[in-house]
């Protein structure tokens, strides 16, 4: 080890940054709006870091990650570090504005694309690289944050994203193999290591989460040579390579052969898969991720301690850590005064996780007696959770067991289509929308007033009904064929259902960064899921009472509700999915009984839960598809089931789309020129399909001719009897005038082609 005298025993892999009360979000948005200057923004950020870093030290972490702070995104920060921002923002002189332009775009430049960070709900910005991207080192941010932390007396460990992960996550704009750019990046990383050592870093953490995905032989060879080379850098800090969100598998022995000093392994998401190899690594510090950084449950000491002592007893130097960055959990349980006291006891958010890590590290170093009380409290809480009757509702389990695995629609889709058409009598190329209409300020005001107790539920419902009436009248006037109620009553498409289901809990302040300044407050599913009463029927039947045209019922699918929640870790995900599916199934049946003939069950997150490794994907898709079919197969053949998926690049999921067996599937297509239809055809898809012909992500109003052209293209791939005409996604984020103009053109285009 280049610095043989330092080691550490308790750490986390990264810290949240949006602020315990979303201070950074507010400051950043004020900066964007011109209400706060750069100095003001930097001051808010510095304050947050100071408080957070000293608190982490005071809570007993003897190595604290620094540099996981970000004004927007850590991958974008890495692109800045390596001089790899796209050419189109280089004209923007101000550094901060250039950074935000790359993140969000401005009037002149398009932003970088955004995509999901592994299997989390965090989204990163995708660097654009090419064979001729000229990399250069810009180490100011990591150096400044390191110096700031050291000045506070914090045992700081700078964190940077590693070269393999950076290249693997980037998009090759010229089709070149980005791994070939590794030789150009390594000297910059080497230089950075030297600078960080000079500034006083004892350790540096290089994040390589890509190592938990399937790697080719060439990629593994690149891992080997990268860390061989970086470990040969003279006068560098000790290097910790951190991989998280899964098992390292074959990458672990490869890393082990190199001269790095430490490896962080995820013993939560990866289970015990890497333990045997890790136990042989007596010359490396194993940073054991035993506290779940991606979920909110209190750690079970009787699970974590044996993992830790197993390593220690094998002669391996061990530090206790979170499994991944705490970016993915809320800051603290302290504000959660509304949570059921028992449930609250089962949870650990960021602050509580740091305390757990300290307790485990002390138990490991000094024996359990040293922290007997804390361990006792933890054990009692874990036992109480597992014994809680809400975790096993026998009626739900019995119903699921009786339904067995094949709750599916038995009549073939082609026959159903005929029966549904007899009932619905729709014109060729029926027009519809995806569900939401613009969330006007009137709606937001009403929601805020209800929350503050300024209006009561009756008044709120009256106002929502007025919104529905307006949206129905508007759709009739525009001439759409299948109407929606507009979703004014929903805050969020997953949360809205979670709030109404038993087995779910909501937090007051449990914000987690989704991207940039956008935060979400995921519901917590803690027990068996029961639908105590109908959830949407009143709204939908009210909408239907206002029109003779069919109104489409609107539900969120089980996989999406699951994907956007903190999930149970005491049973397989598939079991929880089936329980949610049962609740949605009951709702579809109740809607049908109330006379609703078309029901849409949205699954925009179907692809989000896809496991990182190929070997695990088929099993996931099986249960995900099964859960959707369970939710939608309780209705008669004459009831038409729709689904909506938000994207067009289905990738590995493509085969599953047909498996959903929805009578109609609406998808994103406006930006990809209907190519997705060929992909669907190739995958044997023969159901109704509504490729989006209006890109709702843009304020632009598509012209009638343009929509006709899209539809003509679509008709080359799909027979008219199966083609629907609709926008790409919900209209929630658009302005009413844009929506009206666009939908008029959409209806005109469909009519022209009939
Ligand atoms: N029905 C939802 C809406 O229209 C679908 C949203 C989504 O796809 N994310 O808003
Ligand atoms: Zn969508």
From TrEMBL:
<feature type="binding site">
    <location>
        <begin position="518"/>
        <end position="519"/>
    </location>
    <ligand>
        <name>5-methyltetrahydropteroyltri-L-glutamate</name>
    </ligand>
</feature>
<feature type="binding site">
    <location>
        <begin position="434"/>
        <end position="436"/>
    </location>
    <ligand>
        <name>L-methionine</name>
    </ligand>
</feature>
<comment type="similarity">
    <text>Belongs to the vitamin-B12 independent methionine synthase family.</text>
</comment>
<keyword id="KW-0486">Methionine biosynthesis</keyword>
<feature type="binding site">
    <location>
        <position position="602"/>
    </location>
    <ligand>
        <name>L-homocysteine</name>
    </ligand>
</feature>
<feature type="binding site">
    <location>
        <position position="487"/>
    </location>
    <ligand>
        <name>L-homocysteine</name>
    </ligand>
</feature>
<keyword id="KW-0489">Methyltransferase</keyword>
<keyword id="KW-0677">Repeat</keyword>
<feature type="domain" description="Cobalamin-independent methionine synthase MetE C-terminal/archaeal">
    <location>
        <begin position="429"/>
        <end position="751"/>
    </location>
</feature>
<dbReference type="GO" id="GO:0032259">
    <property type="term" value="P:methylation"/>
</dbReference>
<comment type="pathway">
    <text>Amino-acid biosynthesis; L-methionine biosynthesis via de novo pathway; L-methionine from L-homocysteine (MetE route): step 1/1.</text>
</comment>
<feature type="binding site">
    <location>
        <position position="668"/>
    </location>
    <ligand>
        <name>Zn(2+)</name>
    </ligand>
</feature>
<feature type="binding site">
    <location>
        <position position="608"/>
    </location>
    <ligand>
        <name>5-methyltetrahydropteroyltri-L-glutamate</name>
    </ligand>
</feature>
<feature type="binding site">
    <location>
        <position position="602"/>
    </location>
    <ligand>
        <name>L-methionine</name>
    </ligand>
</feature>
<dbReference type="GO" id="GO:0008270">
    <property type="term" value="F:zinc ion binding"/>
</dbReference>
<feature type="binding site">
    <location>
        <position position="644"/>
    </location>
    <ligand>
        <name>Zn(2+) 1</name>
    </ligand>
</feature>
<dbReference type="InterPro" id="IPR038071">
    <property type="entry name" value="UROD/MetE-like_sf"/>
</dbReference>
<feature type="active site" description="Proton donor">
    <location>
        <position position="697"/>
    </location>
</feature>
<keyword id="KW-0862">Zinc</keyword>
<feature type="binding site">
    <location>
        <begin position="22"/>
        <end position="25"/>
    </location>
    <ligand>
        <name>5-methyltetrahydropteroyltri-L-glutamate</name>
    </ligand>
</feature>
<feature type="binding site">
    <location>
        <position position="487"/>
    </location>
    <ligand>
        <name>L-methionine</name>
    </ligand>
</feature>
<feature type="binding site">
    <location>
        <position position="646"/>
    </location>
    <ligand>
        <name>Zn(2+) 1</name>
    </ligand>
</feature>
<feature type="binding site">
    <location>
        <position position="121"/>
    </location>
    <ligand>
        <name>5-methyltetrahydropteroyltri-L-glutamate</name>
    </ligand>
</feature>
<feature type="binding site">
    <location>
        <position position="564"/>
    </location>
    <ligand>
        <name>5-methyltetrahydropteroyltri-L-glutamate</name>
    </ligand>
</feature>
<feature type="binding site">
    <location>
        <position position="644"/>
    </location>
    <ligand>
        <name>Zn(2+)</name>
    </ligand>
</feature>
<keyword id="KW-0808">Transferase</keyword>
<feature type="binding site">
    <location>
        <position position="116"/>
    </location>
    <ligand>
        <name>5-methyltetrahydropteroyltri-L-glutamate</name>
    </ligand>
</feature>
<feature type="binding site">
    <location>
        <position position="729"/>
    </location>
    <ligand>
        <name>Zn(2+) 1</name>
    </ligand>
</feature>
<feature type="binding site">
    <location>
        <position position="729"/>
    </location>
    <ligand>
        <name>Zn(2+)</name>
    </ligand>
</feature>
<dbReference type="GO" id="GO:0009086">
    <property type="term" value="P:methionine biosynthetic process"/>
</dbReference>
<keyword id="KW-0028">Amino-acid biosynthesis</keyword>
<dbReference type="InterPro" id="IPR013215">
    <property type="entry name" value="Cbl-indep_Met_Synth_N"/>
</dbReference>
<keyword id="KW-0479">Metal-binding</keyword>
<protein>
    <recommendedName>
        <fullName>5-methyltetrahydropteroyltriglutamate--homocysteine methyltransferase</fullName>
        <ecNumber>2.1.1.14</ecNumber>
    </recommendedName>
</protein>
<feature type="binding site">
    <location>
        <begin position="434"/>
        <end position="436"/>
    </location>
    <ligand>
        <name>L-homocysteine</name>
    </ligand>
</feature>
<comment type="function">
    <text>Catalyzes the transfer of a methyl group from 5-methyltetrahydrofolate to homocysteine resulting in methionine formation.</text>
</comment>
<feature type="domain" description="Cobalamin-independent methionine synthase MetE N-terminal">
    <location>
        <begin position="10"/>
        <end position="312"/>
    </location>
</feature>
<dbReference type="GO" id="GO:0003871">
    <property type="term" value="F:5-methyltetrahydropteroyltriglutamate-homocysteine S-methyltransferase activity"/>
</dbReference>
<dbReference type="Pfam" id="PF08267">
    <property type="entry name" value="Meth_synt_1"/>
</dbReference>
<feature type="binding site">
    <location>
        <position position="646"/>
    </location>
    <ligand>
        <name>Zn(2+)</name>
    </ligand>
</feature>
<feature type="binding site">
    <location>
        <position position="668"/>
    </location>
    <ligand>
        <name>Zn(2+) 1</name>
    </ligand>
</feature>
<dbReference type="Pfam" id="PF01717">
    <property type="entry name" value="Meth_synt_2"/>
</dbReference>
């Amino acid at each position: 080890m280049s610095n043989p005298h330092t080691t550490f025993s308790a750490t986390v892999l990264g810290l949240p940054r949006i602020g315990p009360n979303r201070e950074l979000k507010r400051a950043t948005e004020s900066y964007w709006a011109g209400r706060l200057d750069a100095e003001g923004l930097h001051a808010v950020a510095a304050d947050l870091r100071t408080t957070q870093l000293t608190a982490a030290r005071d809570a007993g972490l003897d190595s604290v990650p620094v540099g996981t702070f970000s004004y927007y995104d850590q991958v974008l920060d890495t692109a800045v570090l390596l001089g790899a921002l796209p050419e189109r923002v280089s004209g923007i002189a101000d550094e901060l504005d250039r950074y935000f332009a790359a993140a969000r775009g401005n009037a002149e430049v398009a932003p970088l694309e955004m995509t999901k960070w592994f299997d989390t709900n965090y989204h990163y910005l995708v660097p654009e690289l090419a064979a001729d991207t000229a990399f250069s080192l810009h180490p100011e941010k990591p150096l400044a944050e390191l110096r700031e932390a050291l000045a506070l007396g914090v045992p700081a460990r700078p964190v940077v994203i590693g070269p393999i992960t950076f290249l693997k996550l980037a998009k090759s704009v010229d089709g070149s193999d980005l791994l070939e750019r590794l030789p150009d990046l390594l000297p910059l990383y080497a230089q950075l290591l030297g600078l960080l050592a000079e500034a006083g870093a004892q350790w540096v953490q290089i994040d390589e989460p890509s190592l938990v995905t399937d790697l080719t032989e060439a990629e593994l060879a690149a891992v080997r040579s990268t860390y061989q080379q970086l470990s040969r850098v003279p006068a560098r800090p000790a290097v910790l390579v951190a991989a998280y969100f899964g098992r390292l598998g074959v990458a672990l022995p490869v890393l082990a052969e190199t001269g790095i000093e430490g490896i962080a392994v995820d013993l939560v998401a990866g289970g015990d898969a890497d333990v045997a190899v890790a136990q042989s690594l007596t010359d490396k510090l194993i940073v054991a991720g035993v506290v779940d950084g991606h979920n909110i449950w209190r750690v079970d000491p009787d699970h974590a301690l044996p993992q830790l002592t197993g390593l220690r007893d094998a002669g391996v130097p061990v530090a206790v850590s979170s499994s991944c960055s705490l970016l993915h959990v809320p800051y603290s349980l302290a504000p959660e005064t509304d949570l059921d006291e028992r449930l609250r006891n089962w949870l650990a958010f960021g602050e509580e996780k740091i305390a757990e890590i300290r307790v485990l590290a002390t138990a490991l170093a000094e024996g359990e007696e040293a922290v007997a009380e804390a361990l006792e409290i933890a054990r009692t809480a874990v036992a109480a959770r597992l014994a809680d009757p809400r975790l096993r509702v026998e009626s739900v389990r019995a119903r699921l067991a009786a339904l067995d695995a094949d709750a599916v629609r038995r009549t073939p889709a082609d026959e159903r289509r005929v029966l549904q058409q007899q009932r619905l009598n729709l014109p060729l190329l029926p027009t519809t929308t995806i569900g939401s209409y613009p969330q006007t300020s009137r709606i937001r005001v009403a929601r805020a007033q209800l929350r503050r107790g300024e209006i009561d539920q009756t008044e709120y419902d009256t106002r929502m009904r007025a919104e529905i009436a307006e949206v129905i009248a508007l759709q009739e006037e525009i001439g759409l064929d299948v109407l929606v109620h507009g979703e004014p009553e929903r805050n969020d498409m997953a949360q809205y259902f979670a709030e109404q289901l038993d087995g779910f809990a909501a937090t007051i302040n449990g914000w987690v960064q989704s991207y940039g300044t956008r935060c979400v407050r995921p519901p917590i599913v803690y027990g068996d899921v029961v639908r105590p009463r109908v959830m949407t029927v009143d709204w939908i039947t009210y909408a239907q009472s206002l029109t003779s045209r069919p109104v489409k019922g609107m539900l969120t699918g089980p996989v999406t509700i699951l994907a956007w929640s903190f999930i149970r870790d005491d049973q397989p995900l598939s079991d929880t999915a089936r329980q949610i599916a049962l609740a949605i199934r009951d709702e579809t049946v109740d809607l049908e009984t109330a006379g609703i003939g078309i029901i849409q069950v949205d699954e925009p997150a179907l692809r989000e839960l896809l496991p990182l490794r190929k070997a695990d994907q088929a099993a996931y898709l099986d249960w995900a598809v099964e859960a959707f079919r369970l939710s939608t197969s309780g209705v008669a053949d004459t009831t038409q089931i729709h689904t909506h998926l938000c994207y067009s690049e289905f990738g590995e999921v493509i085969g599953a789309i047909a498996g959903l067996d929805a009578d109609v599937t609406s998808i994103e297509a406006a930006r990809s020129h209907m190519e997705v239809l060929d992909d669907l055809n190739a995958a044997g898809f023969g159901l109704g399909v509504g490729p989006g012909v209006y890109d709702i992500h843009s304020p632009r109003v598509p012209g009638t001719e343009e929509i006709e052209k899209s539809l003509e293209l679509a008709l080359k791939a799909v027979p008219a009897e199966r083609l629907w005409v609709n926008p790409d996604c919900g209209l929630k984020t658009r302005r009413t005038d844009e929506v009206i103009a666009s939908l008029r053109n959409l209806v005109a285009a469909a009519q022209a082609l009939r």
